[in-house]
Amino acid sequence: MKKNLNFKIINSWIRICGLLLLVFLIIAGYFYFFLTPLESELRVIFLDIGQGDAILIQTKTKNILIDGGPDREIIYKLDQYIAAHQRKIDLMILTHPDGDHLNGLVEVLRRWPVDNFLETGIKGSSPAYLDLQRLISERDLPVYYSVNLKKIVLSPDLEMEILWPLNSGNNLIKEDPNSLSLVLKLSHQDNTFLLTGDADHEVEEKILDIYPCLESLVLKVGHHGSKYSSGLSFLQKVKPTYAVISVGQDNNFGHPSLRVLDNLQQVSAQVLRTDQKGDIIFESNGQNLNLKTAR
Q1: Facing residues of 184 across strands?
Q2: Which strands, in side-by-side order, build the sheet including 42-46?
Q3: Per-domain residue ranges of the chain
Q4: What pLDDT is stored for residue 23 in this prediction?
Q5: Predicted pLDDT at 169
Q6: Which end is more exposed in the chain, N or C (fewer Cβ atoms within 10 Å of the end residue's Cβ)?
Q7: What is the pTM for the complete model shown?
Q8: How far is 226 from 255, CA to CA, in rounded Å?
Q9: The domain 37-293 belongs to what CATH superfamily?
Q10: How far is 46 from 274, CA to CA, in rounded Å?
C-alpha cells in the first residue's frame, strides 16, 4: 500500500514538473518573440489595439509612439515590446485629436516617462484632449508643431518626413480633424513606410500634387480602411508591397471597405489587418525588410 502511495506521489510530481516546464517554455517563447534585444536597426510595430491607431517605432536607442488607440490597452502593448530598463518614450506623436488615436496617449503620459511631444496644433475639445494638455503642462513637456518641422532625423540612415498638413493654427480648428491628420514618411535607406493617419481622398490628391514620388514599401492604410480614403490613383502612385490596416474586430463602421480592399488588390498589395494578424511587426536593416505577425 505504501509503495502504491509513493508511486502515485512520484507520478503527480512528474505531471506537475511537466506542466511547469510547459508554462516556462510558453513564457520563454513569448519573450523571445517579443522582447529579444533589437538586432535590426529599425522595428516598426503596428499595434493591435482594437478600433484605432497605434504605431511603435524602435531603434536600438529610441522609442517613438505614434498615436495610442482608444483606451489603456496601449499600456499592456508597450510593456510587451519595451524592456524595463528602456522604459521611456523619446517622442510621442499625435496625428490628430480623435479619441481612437488620442485616448491611449493620455494613459501612457500618466504612467510613462516621455521626453518630447509632436502634434499638428489642431485643438480638440474632448475631456481626453484636455487631460492630455494638462499632463503636458504639468510635466513641462517640450511640444513641437508639425508646421515648424519638415523632417525629423533619427539617425544618419533614418528620417521621418512630415508631408501633411502644411499649416496649422486657430484658423484650422473648425476643419474636419481627419483632413488635417499628420501624414508621415519614414525612410530607412531602401525601406520606406508611408503613415497616413486618417487622411481622406482630398488630402491624398493634394499630397500627390506636392509630392509626385510617394512610392513606399509599406503603407499604413488611411482611416482604418474607410471608403473615404485609399483612392486608386493614390495607391497606384504609392505602389505598396504591404498595406497595413489598423482596425477592430466587428467594428460599427464597416471597416475596412470592400472598395478599399479591391483597390489594394488592384495594386497587388499584401493586405495585413490587425484584427486578423494581431500586432504586425517589420524589422529593417536598411536593405532587407522582415515581417512577423502575432498570429
Answers
A1: 162, 195
A2: 143-145, 117-119, 91-93, 63-66, 55-58, 42-46, 280-284, 289-293
A3: 1-36, 37-293
A4: 57
A5: 45
A6: N
A7: 0.86
A8: 6
A9: Ribonuclease Z/Hydroxyacylglutathione hydrolase-like (3.60.15.10)
A10: 8
